[in-house]
Amino acid sequence: MIPDQTLNIVILLMNVLLGGLCFGVARGERPAPALRYWGWGLLVYTLGILVVLSSGLLPPSLAYFCGNALITLAPIIAVRALFWHSATRLNPLWALVVVLPAIGVLAWNNFFGEFRPLLNFVAPTLVAIFAFVFAALRLLIHLPPDVRATVRLVAIVSLIAAALWSVRLLFLTQLIPLNDPNHATVVTVALAIGHLLVTVAGTFALLAVEVRSMEQQLRSQARRDALTGLPNRWAVEERFAQELARAARQHIPFGLLLLDIDHFKRINDVHGHLAGDAMLRCIAAALAASKRSEDLLARVGGEEFLLLFVGADTIAAQALGSRLTEAVEAIRFEFEAQQLSTTISGGLALYPDDGANWQALYATADVRLYRAKHRGRNQICGPWNAEAG
């Protein structure tokens, strides 16, 4: 049988190693607050155990109170880590309501009342059970959509931790008596190993949440234009495939409107690229505010935007194009004490009349865009005027 002291040393070392791992990951290029709080929870718990074990060096009452107070705080810190990737946040007032009574019991037991060793264990254990059960239930009720599976795993680990603390409490309070010393040793070792496994599982579950969250963030960034915040060409092509499939099933019309800022090179040459960037952001905001909510606006080139609109026929598409050109023409913004303005031109292509795939529709919209440029700019060229003039 493994000696209790050896097992305690293994648990403490594992907590320190896992806490260090959490801090190491959290100090990377991408902040990971959940792992940082989890690491602090592990280290505070370890420190609490070490302080309790130092009762031969410190006054016993002080060692028992300080050590068990740290053990009481550890699950609260861990719960903050568990909540980080959910819609729930740890309420500091709630934490005080839970922790302060337990610390008060510890102070009374170690300094003022009749000393009862069992109270030093019961007080932090009840806090841990309540904290982990509460965290698990809140996580299961408010599962974040992007990391649902991994957060569910975190909630399950939290419930297992609460169950282990509960079983240990039942044995130590003799609610489940163990008269045979051998059985008591087996239970102690089993609970210690269970605690070790839960600590490891919790750490790696949070790591899995962090990895999944990072994947979602990278995927989102890959679909976004860094300057304007609009979707990029990849995102609009992905949406195009969805609309193409829906149009084939439900015969819902849609189209592409390719927009280009008029004389944008002149703005960059005369006022500088910072002015050009400011204008791109301003135009992106104006277009986004003027489009319909169901349409997708993207930046697909240096000064090119593309609007994928759905459920609109030729007349509605013409009205939409006019609204967008008017919105841009009305823009006035200052850059380095100079008031700048511009216009846009556009080419519109409708599915299926102008093409049945991305390449065909985009090529038609591009041809009509340059036709609008040749006709004097600040206008939309579409099926209604494609052959005129």
Explain how this protein is built:
It contains 12 helices and 7 strands. β2 (296-299) and β3 form a beta hairpin. The longest helix has 42 residues, at 181-222. It has helices spanning 4-26, 33-53, 60-83, 92-112, 117-141, 148-172, 181-222, 233-250, 264-271, 273-290, 314-329, 358-374, and strands spanning 254-261, 296-299, 304-310, 333-335, 338-340, 344-351, 380-381. The strands form 2 sheets. The protein has a 5-stranded mixed sheet with strand order 2-3-1-6-7, sandwiched between helices. Helices cover 66% and strands 9% of the residues. It has 389 residues and is of the alpha+beta class. α2 packs antiparallel against α7, α3 (60-83) runs parallel beside α5 and α5 (117-141) packs antiparallel against α6 (148-172).
- Total beta strands: 7
Structural class computed from helices and strand pairing:
alpha+beta
Taking the alpha carbons of the first and last residues, their distance comes to: 95 Å
How many separate helices?
Answer: 12
Q: H/E series, N to C?
A: HHHHHHHHEHHEEHEEEHE
Q: Trace the largest sheet across and list its strands.
A: 2-3-1-6-7
Shape: elongated
* Proportion of beta-strand residues: 5-15%
**Unreliable runs:** none
Largest sheet: 5 strands, mixed
Share of helical residues: 55-70%
Radius of gyration equals 32 Å
Average pLDDT reading = 86
